[in-house]
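tool=predict chain=A
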Amino acid sequence: MSAESTPLLTPAQRKLVGFALGFAAMCAIGGLLFWVLTGVARFISAFSSVIWPLAVAGILALLMRPVVTFFERRLKLRRTVAVVLLYLVFLLLVAGLLVTFLPALATQLLDFIAYLPTLWQKTIAWGELHYPGWLAIIRPYLDNPTVKAALDGLTQQAQDLLGHLAPTIKSAGAGLFGIFGFAASVAVIPVYLFFFLLSNEDPTKSLPEHLPFLQKEHRDDVVFLIGEFLGILVAFSRGQLLIGLIMGVLLATGFSLAGLKFGLAIGLLTGLLNLVPYLGSILGLSVALPLAFLQPDGGLPLVGICLGVFGVVQAIEGWFLTPRIMGKQTGLHPVAIIVAVFFWGQALGGVLGMMLAVPLTAFFVTAWRFVRRNYFKAADETLV
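tool=predict ok
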């Protein structure tokens, strides 16, 4: 009579081992993702001057391709002529906007930069008058060497930024070389864009030919996901740019009518900076509200008016512009968007990552749902 074989592990031990293996697999996947993101960030940082003009030109080509196709079909033009016509129309629009708004915008922007030291002095004077106890508490921390070093670093960065905005401020050879390098990168974008627009093919059409090492069903899935990413990127970029322009015009009009100093420049920059979600709103309010309170004819009433203008524009953007222009393209929670902006800004090393944060996150959410539906569900059904 043979004795029944005793299992090597009890059910509880098997569950524990299974959990340990699953946890180890998750840690390995997390480490691999961290290693990949770190490598991508270093690569982008090392070759940023080459990558970002290509990225900007590629995104602009995806946005402008329907216009070129419209010119080509409606006006019966060759593709090259249609692209040249688009360039001419764009130059005329830009020239008209520059002639109309540039003098006032440039004047306000330069006056605002010159006014910043005065605004800081007024802020300190107001604080010493109304809240001397708070300043007495803060001053010992400001005298701390670490805090001083951090403030000196921020001051140096601000000076470097002004040096890039006004080349005459920095006459050093390295700074001038950096300015020329940036100008060259900007100048090459129209060249890249011209050649990208000449192609009328779907960017993913020839992609399967470059993935012969994948099985056909997996190759089709990869092509589908890349097409989804491009669709999300185009929809978000087009919508966010249009919404930013409309918000900038509305804020500039409202601030100017309210009597806020430099209202035109602050309003337009606040709208345009919303290309990075919430960045424009945070920076715009942090500048507009102190300025409204401390300017000679300002005070709490002007602060309230500026807050009202901002609230009305935000309501228009949330209830009308975003639903009509973008719909529910991303489906991301506002907290997820904020986390994504910081995460991708750190992962990809700067503004480019922050601008691509929402489409990248929306793409990964879509890819995860696709993989879970097509692969994990099939695996579960097989096990059952």
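Residues 79-130 form the longest helix (52 residues). Residues 158-177 have pLDDT under 50 and may be disordered.
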